[in-house]
User: What shape does this take?
Amino acid sequence: MTALLLIALTSFSPGRGDTGLGLIAGNPTGISFKYFTSTTKAIDAAAAWSFSDDWVMLHCDYLWHSFGSFEVDKGQLPWYYGLGGWVAFGDDVFAGGRLPLGIEYLFENQNIDLFLEVAASLAVIPDTDFDVDAGIGVRFFF
Assistant: This one.
């Protein structure tokens, strides 16, 4: 339902902005935010929850995009990598670092992107633990 709403909103905006807001589904699932600081760099964040672990997670990453690797007929298809951190709240407080890797489709003449991301995660508080998060999402840029 939200994806359809975001698609409908693209007809009301004259151009693609630097700030995106949307949804990410996977582990965890929640609200996704992205702000392009330049044509190849962005800050990405999410407020999400894990259905399997019963906690709420906040993460923030700094991303670098590579636009020349994949050619598409319309739009753009950059891959990206980054470095970030996360904190999760459940029965305890957890925190650690993230190394996201993803691919993003930027529609031509539209304010919508689709993305697929995998992030290696290293918890350092309260214990050391390695995990992998993955998600697929959509954002509307304004």
Q: What stands out?
A: The chain is about 5% helix and 65% strand.
